[in-house]
TrEMBL record:
Organism encoding this protein: Pseudofrankia inefficax (strain DSM 45817 / CECT 9037 / DDB 130130 / EuI1c) (Frankia inefficax)
Similarity-based family: Belongs to the ROK (NagC/XylR) family.
Pfam families per record: ROK
Family annotation (PANTHER family): N-ACETYLMANNOSAMINE KINASE, ROK (REPRESSOR, ORF, KINASE) FAMILY
Entry protein name: ROK family protein
InterPro entries: ATPase_NBD, ROK
């Protein structure tokens, strides 16, 4: 399985795993619900690895990339402050722990490892050595996945998920930042009189332009709130129209900020809200054109023409995690 790799995208609600070829082609996928806490996260990740081994009907490849929220020390393979995963303020050696579970699957595959050693023994018998695990922040992993998918070497990836953040590949290089805080645009204050943000500041952009903002503006139990909001606005509900326009203007503000600071050639919208597809893309592009209508300078930047979407259903985070070793 030369060049084949494994990627895990670990989130608060689910863990998505992929096996990919060297060119980024997805060969197999598996998904499990995330159980919070150190033992739960490891058990969930181990279940995904076992399902991937079953899907490829043989041993897993030696290279495993993992995208995880929180502060990541790539050299140590450790994460902290992944609070949504139940991993608190102390460094947790996630790479070694996942490597221990991938080791047996690397040598024997899921069925043989379980039948010869039992699930628990198989996961720990060989240690981390047989699997080379690379740990990365989940946004950076998704950004690299967007780079692999698009082929663009100068891009900003805007993640519209529970929160709002951006990742960058500039001149083919993943930009992480000196303190790992590059692209935390969701925590740029835009309204001094606004609500208190979870980061401790007031009026952050994330409170206007994120999945959480859409949920607060238009709560929904049956479908994702952003989808419900856009549907109600399309049906002519005046309250929904106002809420949608405020949301879209916030996303356009985020993109304008990126255009005026980083000036990326390509801007890719991803995250759960991006599953809206064309309605989101068209609305944000329209808001950008409206903002530029009275500014020849903004008009000359033509930000709307740089926008694109992650293809629906593509596991960009897991794909990026699998390929993150190429990012350096």
């Amino acid at each position: 399985m030369t060049g084949v790799r494994v990627g895990l995208d670990i989130g608060a609600t689910k863990i998505l795993g992929v096996v990919v070829a060297g060119d980024g082609t997805v060969l197999a996928q598996a998904r499990e619900q995330t159980v919070a806490g150190p033992d739960g996260v490891l058990a969930s990740a181990g279940a995904v690895l076992e399902r991937l081994a079953e899907a490829v009907d043989g041993p897993l490849p030696p290279d495993v990339g993992v995208g995880v929220p929180g502060i990541v020390d790539r050299r140590r393979g450790a994460v902290k402050h992944a609070v949504n995963l139940g991993l608190g303020g102390d460094w947790f050696p996630l790479a070694d722990q996942i490597g221990a579970r991938a080791g047996a699957l690397r040598h024997f595959g899921a069925n043989t490892a379980r039948s010869h050693f039992g699930a628990n023994t198989a996961r720990s018998h060989f240690g981390a050595g047989p699997a080379r695990v690379t740990l990365e922040n989940d946004l950076n992993a998704a950004t690299w996945g967007a780079h692999v998918l698009s082929g663009a070497d100068d891009l900003a990836y805007v993640s519209l998920g529970t929160g709002l953040a951006a990742g960058f590949v500039l001149d083919g290089v993943l930009r992480r930042g000196a303190h790992g805080a590059a692209g935390e645009i969701g925590h740029v204050p835009v309204d001094p009189a606004g609500e208190l943000c979870s980061c401790g500041q007031k009026g952050c952009l994330e409170l206007v332009a994120s999945g959480s903002a859409a949920s607060a503006a238009w709560p929904s139990r049956d479908v994702p709130p952003a989808q419900a909001l856009f549907a109600a606005a399309a049906a002519g509900d005046p309250t929904a129209v106002a809420a949608r326009d405020r949301f879209v203007d916030g996303v356009a503000d985020a993109i304008r900020m990126l255009g005026l600071t980083v000036d990326p050639r390509t801007i890719i919208l991803g995250g759960g809200v991006a599953n809206l597809g064309a309605p989101l893309l068209d609305a944000v592009a329209g808001a950008l054109r409206a903002q530029a209508a009275t500014s020849p300078f903004l008009s000359s930047l033509d930000l709307a023409s740089r926008l694109t979407l992650v293809p629906r259903g593509v596991p960009v985070g897991a794909l990026g995690a699998a390929m993150i070793g190429d990012a350096g």
